[in-house]
């Protein structure tokens, strides 16, 4: 099996052949890792992205099609993964800058940790109340960083349907959490005085 070309190994992978997956992994992990490292400048992030690319390959093996070569497919996959990573990182930086500007002068880490923990619990409880398909799409979008198009491919629905589920989930969560967030705001203001 080791002498097989990439396309033959990929076809075996599509038939759930774990040995074919391991061979493709061993052939390409280093290339993928260094492509990710070049862009992220972080060995840990590059390793995580490399594993995510191969995890996605395994999860989507049945529906993935290769147009030119496996090497082209896998390097393109890591490029898109890195783009999403960079995008998510810039969003986190933007939020961190905003929090720095708007954070209260007095910082109580215990109080803030409790508030975040309570908020997280409220969010999770409300996500669990979402309709099943809506909840699944929302979790793929927010927890796995999948695009609406990727979700649509994975669930065999249209990208518009996936986006509608995301929008519906966000609308429901905003409404459900509105009162909780107001209560947290007023309590933190009142306690801070």
Portion in beta strands: under 5%
**Residue ranges: pLDDT <50 for 5 or more in a row?**
none
Roughly how many Å is the radius of gyration? Answer: 21 Å
Number of strands: 0
**Could you give the distance between the termini?**
71 Å
Instruction: Give the overall average pLDDT.
Output: 83
Largest sheet: none
Order of helix and strand elements from N to C terminus:
HHHHHHHH
Structural class: mainly alpha
Summed up, the helix count is 8
Tell me the helix content: over 70%
Shape: globular
Give an account of the 3D structure.
With 193 residues, this protein is mainly α. 81% of the residues lie in helices and 0% in strands. The chain is built from eight helices and no strands. The radius of gyration is 21 Å and the shape is globular. It starts with 5 loop residues before the first helix and ends with a helix. The mean pLDDT is 83.
Summarize the structure.
By secondary structure, this protein is mainly α. The chain contains eight helices and no strands. The radius of gyration is 21 Å and the shape is globular.
Key terms for this structure?
single chain; mainly alpha
How is the secondary structure organized here?
Blueprint: H1 6-14, H2 18-40, H3 43-59, H4 70-102, H5 109-129, H6 132-143, H7 148-155, H8 159-192
Helix pairs in contact: 1-2, 2-3, 2-4, 3-4, 5-8, 6-8, 7-8
């Amino acid at each position: 099996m080791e002498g097989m070309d990439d396309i033959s190994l990929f076809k075996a992978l599509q038939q759930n052949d774990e040995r074919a997956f391991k061979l493709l992994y061993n052939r390409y992990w280093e290339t993928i890792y260094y492509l990710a490292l070049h862009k992220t400048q972080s060995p840990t992030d590059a390793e995580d992205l490399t594993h995510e690319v191969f995890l996605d390959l395994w999860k989507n093996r049945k529906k993935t099609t290769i147009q030119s070569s496996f090497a082209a497919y896998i390097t393109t996959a890591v490029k898109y993964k890195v783009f999403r990573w960079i995008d998510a990182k810039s969003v986190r930086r933007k939020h961190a800058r905003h929090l720095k500007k708007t954070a209260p002068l007095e910082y109580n880490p215990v109080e803030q940790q409790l508030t975040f923990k309570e908020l997280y619990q409220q969010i999770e409880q409300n996500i669990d109340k979402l309709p099943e398909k809506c909840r699944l799409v929302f979790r793929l979008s927010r927890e796995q960083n999948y695009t609406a198009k990727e979700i649509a491919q994975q669930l065999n629905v249209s990208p518009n349907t996936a986006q509608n589920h995301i929008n519906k989930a966000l609308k429901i969560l905003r409404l459900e959490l509105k009162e909780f967030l107001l209560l947290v705001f007023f309590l933190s203001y009142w306690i801070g005085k």
